[in-house]
User: What shape does this take?
Amino acid sequence: MNAFEALGLDIPFINAINDLGFTQPSEVQEKAIPLLLNSSEDLVALAQTGTGKTAAFGFPMLQNIDVNSRTTQGLILSPTRELCLQITNELGLYGKYLKGLNVTAIYGGASITDQASKVKKGAQIIVATPGRMKDMINRKMVDISKIEYAVLDEADEMLNMGFYEDINDILSYTPQDKSTWLFSATMPKEVATIAKKFMYQPNEITVGHKNVGSEQVSHEYYLVGSRDRYLALKRLADANPDIFSVIFCRTKRDTQKIAEKLIEDGYNAGALHGDLSQNQRDMVMKSFRNKQIQMLVATDVAARGIDVDDITHVINYQLPDEIETYTHRSGRTGRAGKTGISMVIITKSEQRKIKAIERIIQKSFTKKRFPDGDEICRVQLMSLANKIHDTEINHDIDNYLNDLNALYEDTSKEELIKKIFSVEFTRFSNYYKNAKDLNNVSSGPESTGNEKSVRFFINVGKKDGYDWMSLKDFLKAILELGKDDVFKVDVKDSFSFFNTDEKFATKVLEFFQDFKYNGRFVNVEISENPESRKKRRKSSRGTKVNPRDRKSNRSKSLSQRPRRSRRR
Ligand code: AMP
Assistant: This one.
């Protein structure tokens, strides 16, 4: 008797399991399957994605339903369309030897009539997102009044997404005496409340912290100044040339912005968030699965359905608002027996959150330092060297060999190697020659990102046709500064302010000593940092500052500085 038979599964399922190549039940399967097969009691299971939980509730449900009946007997609610499809697909595989099995997925963004007609053909199991399910109940396209099993999958996530009311309504159409099985990666108060409300003395199992997923994942954090998050992300990507990762941002806007920046900077990146159409999301996921996208920047909600097994890194560009969500994020890697790394980019003030997460995941984080430019260049060079070394020779090149030999007749092997590597390597080495040391996070109070920057006043503004974006571009171009080197550009009518890193201060001042624009000299001077101005204003005992006074303060502070003489 194999281990799955020992759990009580029948031959058609054992055969399907053999086809799938599962050799041992996972922990959640070991605990849940016998329980669900043999009793009609409710169940609360703490288990995250990647632990085999779909099979844990899927097999008992499939074994207990009557496939000869066309009545809907099982309802599985899950938070996203992707997850819905994934569960439907898995159930199809688990029940492949059940003649007459009909598992139907119901989710938004696809034809409701097609879904209704599939249900009508006799769906014994419906896998649904709450929104669409409610819609179909209202339109009397489904009948769940005779179900025997209800599964709330990823319950914490459904609640995060605001589905409480929908779940409440949907369950009110189901019989009292059904069995309810709730699966959740975390157990915030809201999930416990749902369990209490909809379930009767449920059995409880926890595989939470000992599941296959998180055992395989190591956790690291990198401390940065708040303005250096993006640079940090790039550095982590550069230090891991074969990275295949999901990068989590907090908002859809940040997700889109970071993905765009990465693409602009030459990375294979893509964005996945709720503002994209279903078609766009499908395309992004296809490119990610094909590894055309190496860095998938995603919101928590959109990433729920990612069923890709070989993700090497999860990068928390920002920590989630709810620290419990970290478990979901890190569970995207370290799946199917592979190891994975979950990285967190944090600022000093967020550091305490690490402790809280450690308590939840019951694992320690390693505080890491960013590799320096030399290390990154070395990693990149060796990665390229290995790729070239392992590349299979394409003999179509033989046709051109004479021409190539003629071209390189006088080039030694060493020279040729250097030239080949320079093609890729120069870009990195140039970038990292002057790259900032990200490990140098100030040890004082929380970094506002301003301490090391200088604020400038410039007598060019809206009247000269600039907005913040065009002025930023203009400054970057004339000063020959990098993409992120000019920031906090604040354009007023006839003057503006901007910041640069303090290392560029001299360069900026020198450049503008004799710079003419539309025939007049442009005046650039060091101004006051808005943070310190804010602080000072606050400390002026709440007295409202007359804008006029403020203006005169500014001119005063400017005039107090020694005037620089113009070269011409
Ligand atoms: P889940 O946690 O349900 O999302 O499952 C994660 C992945 O593990 C799916 O691709 C399953 O097909 C696979 N899986 C489930 N149970 C087992 C098992 N006992 N052995 C190996 N893989 C499994």
About this structure: The chain has a mean pLDDT of 85. Residues 217-367 form a domain with the Rossmann fold fold (CATH 3.40.50.300).
